[in-house]
Structure formats: C-alpha cells, structure tokens
Amino acid sequence: MSDMPTVTLNNGVKMPLLGFGVFQMSNEEAEQSVYDALQAGYRLIDTAASYRNEEAVGRGIKRSGVPREEIFVTSKLWVADVNYASAKKAYKLSLDKLGLDYLDLYLIHQPYNDVYGAWRALEELYEAGQIKAIGVSNFTSAKLVDFVLNNKIKPMVNQIETHPFNQQTKAHQIMEEYSIVHEGWAPFAEGRQDLFTNKTLKKIADAHHKTVGQIVIRWNIQREIVVIPKSTHKERILENFNVFDFKLTLEDMAEITKLDESKALFVNHEDPEFVKYLYARDRK
Questions:
Q1: Which 3 state secondary structure label does DSSP give 31?
Q2: In this predicted structure, what is the pLDDT of residue 282?
Q3: 273 to each of 149, 154, 164, how far by Cα in Å?
Q4: Which of 101, 138, 208, 229 is the most buried (most CB within 10 A)?
C-alpha cells in the first residue's frame, strides 16, 4: 500500500505502522480474517505459536493472492521453547505451519525461561538471513535495557500492552533511546473500562466523523507505535483500516494523554502466579 506509513527498524527493515492481530481466534476465524485483512490492504499480520492458529493464518495468506514480499509476517517463540536448543526447532515449526520460507519478525513472546540462550539462536537465524528482524514481547523497560546491554544484536521491536488507559509513555522513551520500535497489543483494551463509549474519545471521534476505534488506531500511528487491532468482522476490519484520510490535532492528542492511568489491565508480568499459569498452560 503506497498510503501505508511505515517505521524503519534499527536494521533498516521497514515495518507497516498498522497491522492485523489474530489472538484468541479459532482456525476458521483466523483464515477468513487474515484473508479479509489482506484484501482490505493490511500488510502486517501478527500471530504466535501460542495462538495455535499459524496454519490457518498461512492458509489466509496463501488464499489472498498477495505476493509474499508485500506482507510483513510476525510470529512468536513460546515460553516452553525459550532456550538455545529449542528455539531454532520452534522457529522451523512455525515456518512449516505458516507455509512460509522466512518470517519478517520473530519475537520472544514472554520474558521468561532462558531468554539469553534463545536470543543467541535468534541472532544466528537472523545472521543467516532466515529472519528479517528479531525482537521481544512483554519486556519491562528494565528487562529490555539489561537485554540490550548484554547482547550482540539488540531487539528491533518490543511488543507490549498499549492503549489509551496504559499509554506506556516511559517505556516508549526507553525504546526510542535504544532505537527499538514500540509495538502495541490490545489497542482497544479489549473494550475494558468502556473504551468505546469513553466521553473524551467519543467527542474526538465525532469531531472527525470517525469511530472511537479509528481514533485509537490513528493515535497510535501518530505516536509511531505499530498497532495491531484484531477483528473477525469484515466491516470492522475495513473500518479499522480506514484511518489514513484524517489527522488528530495536537489538542486531540493532549486530551487522549489525560486518559492514561499507567497500569496494565490484563496481566502483571511481575506476578509469580502469572508465570505459573504460563507454564501450566503447556501441560494441558
């Protein structure tokens, strides 16, 4: 898409600022939604081994007929495979499921297990040209800085919870300092705290003749945060993409800034119970 704004990763690779996520989608939903998204003009597709829908995503990509080189595909390494020995095998398995020869971006999904060993494996895959870019997900700023200072190749992306109620301003500044791209998951906060009827967002949306969802996506894009909204409804997929014909004013941006509560709405990555849950999930 010529209209699609991109952000340049610290290795020169261009990444679309607007993408499409498939978290919590069934195989049937993922295949159809990815197909619909690519038809609508999206060129970034974000999945993960733990979503258990990589094969369906691959089918959607294939069905779309969009040339592979035009699509930026991301997947993620799951906790159980975060070590040197398993990471390369897990990467190959993701590729096979997706039916692809390479990934544009591969992320360590959670900041647990042997992240340093896994990163060595990812560095080797990257240096061998098998992945275009490598990064992390859900890393706190302290973890990210420690990671940067102790590795040969620094992450190109950190994907973290980002929405109007948790704007991640400080985390964003740290990422900028190290030339790491900020990618946000759960841009709509999954509708929590009545995001879609929020008075501030509604007022801005009405002023631009847009929906609250479109305002949130545009807000991310103007902050140079890669945003990956998800939807299984074709009309919403199209609506979420229709954000390139308007701009939020400085006043709009300032009003949205006031909504920030600077706290996670989903998981606390410092919570031992959450870590136990992640490992237990693999044993089911």
A1: helix
A2: 74
A3: 28, 29, 26
A4: 229
Determine the Cα–Cα distance for residues 152 and 131; give it in Å rounded to an integer.
Answer: 16
Q: Is residue 11 predicted with pLDDT exceeding 90?
A: yes
Distance CA 182, CA 223 (A): 9
Q: What is the CA radius of gyration of the chain?
A: 18
List the chain domain ranges: 6-282
CB 184 within 8 A of CB 226: yes
How many Cβ atoms are within 10 Å of 176's Cβ, its own excluded? 12
- AA identity, residue 131: I
Cβ atoms of 167 and 195 closer than 8 Å: no
Question: Could you list the active site residues?
Answer: 51
For domain 6-282, the CATH architecture is Alpha-Beta Barrel (3.20)
Per-residue pLDDT at 1 exceeds 60:
no
Tokens 């990422």: give the residue: 175
Asked whether the predicted pLDDT for residue 21 surpasses 80, the reply is yes
pLDDT digits (tens, 9 = 90+) for 28-60: 999 999 999 999 999 999 999 999 999 999 999
Tokens of 154: 């620094």
